[in-house]
Every structure is written in structure tokens, then in C-alpha cells.
């Protein structure tokens, strides 16, 4: 499906479209080589390492964890869920630790996955430098346009995806649509309404 070695991916889709479930499927394959910044405390504890922030909107807390991971050289994959909280779109600057990781990912021999609901909410430096864009159903006009500008027809594909189906756009290589992953990878869904 995707070869993430030293590569970066952004994963987008509307609420409840299946992002965290697919992410769990991917990181489970990495086992202890994966680290999840589990912003909303929804990933299972056992198969891989994770951290749930004390403050789910704190950029310094995220940067502290990311710097420690970069220095430790222990993990091959870093996944940040709800990344738009920490890396909102321009003109907001990327947190420096994320900018460094984005620029020197190969040096750190690390794959990265950033999850956000809508492409227009995530910092463009992450989206536009990503090797892969993984898309669940999206139908917002701005998102569709933004994706169509990245690759002709990509936003149109995202708008027609059936529930839990996803498209993988590999930069320079085209787009492929996949069937849902098994429901056993569903994460511990928490009640989001109360969370800001
Ligand atoms: N592949 C799948 N097969 C069957 N059901 C699924 C699948 N993926 C997700 N679901 C169902 O949809 C719910 C939402 O999935 P998930 O938590 O992965 O969505 P999300 O995109 O991460 O949502 P949010 O934006 O709120 O974080 C799951 O609790 C599960 O019930
Ligand atoms: Mg989720």
C-alpha cells in the first residue's frame, strides 16, 4: 500500500471517516518501532509506544516529546494525531521541532504521519512536502480545490470515496483507492463533543 521508509504522509478525512483506525492498522505493523503522539488518548496501549499530552493544545509539550524522539533515535515512525492543533495552516509558522523533523527526516531515519481532518487546516509545509497523501471522504469546496491543485482530480476522488474507503496519492506516481481495513483496528473512540 505504501512504503513509508524515511517518508512523510498526511492523512485527512472528515470526522469519523476512519483516520485513526487506518493509522492504528499502519502503526501496529511497526510495533515498538512506532511512536504515537496520541492527542486524544484513543490509541491502544500495548502494541506500540504512545504519549497522551497533559495539554492537548500545547505546542511546547509536543515539541519536547518530538525533540526527545529525534534525539533518542529509537523509533522508525512517528505519528501525530490531530496535528492541525499544533501545526495549523500558514501564516502560522510550523513549530521549530516539527520544521526540523520535516527538513531532516532522512537524517533521523524516521517516517512521519500527520493526521488532520481537513487539508486546509494543516500547515502547507507538511502537506506539500509529504510523499503520500492518504484521503478519506472529504467534500468541502476549499479542500477539494486545494487537493485538485496538488494533483489534478485528487480532490474529486476524495469527494467520491465511500465510507471507510481511502485513496493514497503517492507524489509523482498517481493515486490508488483502497478498501476499508478490518474493523478490529478501530481505536477507543472517546466522546469528542466535550473536547476542545
Ligand atoms: N475500516 C473500518 N471498518 C468498519 N468501521 C470503521 C472502520 N474505520 C472506522 N470505523 C468506524 O468509524 C468510527 C470512527 O473511526 P475513526 O475513529 O477511525 O475515525 P476518525 O476519522 O479518526 O475520526 P475523528 O476525526 O473524530 O478522529 C470507529 O469507531 C468505527 O466504529
Ligand atoms: Mg481520529
Question: Can you summarize this structure?
Answer:
By secondary structure, the protein is of the alpha/beta class. It has helices at residues 19-30, 59-72, 96-103, 105-108, 124-129, 141-150, 154-159, and strands at 8-12, 34-37, 49-51, 77-80, 111-116, 132-135, 166-170, 174-178.
Question: Can you tell me about this structure?
Answer:
This protein has 196 residues and is an alpha/beta fold. The chain has a single domain (8-185), classed as Rossmann fold (3-Layer(aba) Sandwich), CATH 3.40.50. Helices cover 31% and strands 18% of the residues. The chain has seven helices and eight strands. It has helices at 19-30, 59-72, 96-103, 105-108, 124-129, 141-150, 154-159; strands spanning 8-12, 34-37, 49-51, 77-80, 111-116, 132-135, 166-170, 174-178. It has an eight-stranded mixed β-sheet with strand order 3-2-4-5-1-6-7-8, sandwiched between helices. Helix 2 (59-72) packs parallel to helix 3 (96-103). The radius of gyration is 15 Å and the shape is globular. The model has no long low-confidence stretch (mean pLDDT 93). The site of magnesium ion has 3 residues, from helix 1.
